[in-house]
From TrEMBL:
Pfam families per UniProt: Paired_CXXCH_1
Domain (Doubled CXXCH motif) ranges: 238-269
Native organism: Thermodesulfatator atlanticus
Taxonomic classification: Bacteria, Pseudomonadati, Thermodesulfobacteriota, Thermodesulfobacteria, Thermodesulfobacteriales
InterPro entries from the UniProt entry: Multihaem_cyt_sf, Multiheme_Cytochr_ET, Paired_CXXCH_1
Protein name per its UniProtKB record: Cytochrome C
Length: 334
């Protein structure tokens, strides 16, 4: 009996305890529900800003996703060479191709224009296809074949298209067959000079183009490198007044005031006669009578007929008496 009472008592105590905890829990829940509107009201300003922050976060995530997508789309390997490339300016090209840029700048050739004028296809070399010949510009697209069908390979002479006049001299002096003739390659461009040398053969023909222009293509030598000056202080420019380098024996028209010593450097005996046998002729410039090289004037051009008609009739040639006009002796005995 006592045992049953104890069990019943414990059950009642347990139920009361459970009821108490349930009541406490309900009370706490009610407080939380009542406080909730206040909490929301206090936090309202912050909640309005929250969507903006969230939007920025979403944008950032979207941007990152886009970048990832773009990166995934960038081709790699062989596919990279198939992509079109935006044309660049010469300055931009020069960042990588500076030696070529320098050649173009220093050569002062007609090739100094936009890189894309020639390189219409750029950065398209494909090491797999090995398409070098296909993509490189062809000279004949602008120049045709200026030296004729016998010379189809421009780069044999013009090795550097970015400095086309920098031609190796050992290439230029080689002979090439043109039709039935063999010509030195210099003559292909310098036709006037070649024709001049062939028409007026001199010792310059013996040394050839390389004898004077051996330094490099386009080098103009100084005459005084090989030849002694006619008079002291004579310059290279003085030489060219009378002489053409490619036909030096054909003396051009020269100024009347040309120093007699210049003429005397070749015509030594005549020059010495004028100095030794002083006459009125000695006071004149050689060019006063000899208006061009090799011209022999007539005495009558200056002197008319200074003697009697009978004497001129008997001696129509002045030099019968005045044997040498540069020392003017007279015949005193017959």
């Amino acid at each position: 009996m006592g045992k049953r009472f104890t069990i019943s008592f414990l059950i009642i105590i347990g139920l009361l305890t459970l009821t108490f905890f349930v009541a406490c829990a309900r009370q706490e829940k009610g407080v939380a529900i009542e406080a909730k509107p206040l909490k929301m009201a206090e936090a309202k300003p912050q909640k309005e800003a929250a969507p903006a922050a969230k939007t920025e976060e979403v944008k950032t995530q979207a941007s990152t996703a886009t970048q990832v997508t773009k990166e995934e789309k960038v081709p790699s390997g062989a596919a990279l060479y198939e992509q079109p490339v935006k044309p660049l300016t010469p300055v931009e090209c020069a960042r990588c191709h500076y030696p070529i840029f320098k050649d173009l700048k220093e050569s002062k050739s007609k090739h100094r224009f936009e890189c894309t004028k020639c390189h219409q296809q750029f950065h398209v070399y494909n090491p797999i296809k090995k398409n070098w010949e296909e993509i490189m510009p062809k000279c004949e697209r602008c120049h045709q074949l200026p030296h004729g069908k016998d010379f189809p390979k421009c780069l044999k002479c013009h090795e550097n298209p970015h400095s086309p006049l920098s031609i190796p001299f050992d290439v230029l002096v080689q002979k090439r067959k043109v039709g039935k003739k063999e010509v030195i390659q210099c003559a292909l461009c310098h036709k006037n000079e070649a024709n001049e040398m062939n028409a007026h053969v001199s010792k310059h023909n013996e040394v050839g183009c390389q004898g004077c222009h051996a330094e490099k293509h386009g080098y103009i030598p100084n005459c005084l490198d090989c030849h002694e000056p006619h008079v002291e202080g004579q310059t290279y420019e003085d030489c060219l007044i009378c002489h053409s380098p490619h036909s030096p024996t054909v003396i051009k028209v020269y100024p009347e005031e040309t120093d007699n010593a210049v003429c005397g450097s070749c015509h030594t005996e005549i020059y010495e006669n004028l100095k030794t046998h002083h006459t009125k002729h000695s006071d004149l410039y050689c060019a006063t009578c000899h208006t061009k090289h090799g011209y022999i004037p007539k005495c009558q051009d200056c002197h008319g007929e200074p003697h009697s008609a009978d004497l001129h009739k008997k001696f129509p040639d002045c030099l019968k008496c005045h044997i040498d006009p540069h020392k003017l002796p007279t015949l005193t005995s017959r």
